[in-house]
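Q: What would this chain look like folded?
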Amino acid sequence: MLLGLTSFANVPPLQLLVVEQAKIDAPQSVDVASGLNIAAFNLGITIGSGIGGQVVAKLGLLDTAWVGAVILAVTLLLVALFNRIQQAKCSEQVFA
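A: My prediction, written as structure tokens:
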């Protein structure tokens, strides 16, 4: 239960972030952005389950830890990239 709470506790804040960003970038497409965000969560669950199953089947249960760490590292890089893009947009708006 604790894993479920912590795993999906990030969904509402991320949904809010997507909706707020859509209001800025494409106000006419807020509903589409919201739907695509939830679809992306479901796709991530599907892909993660598939990767996890393959890792267990081909490498072993203990190897899921390092594969998960690699996926986490890629995710952190994407978050850092998103933050840089957002900071660049903010500085463009300040100087414009």
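The mean pLDDT is 91.
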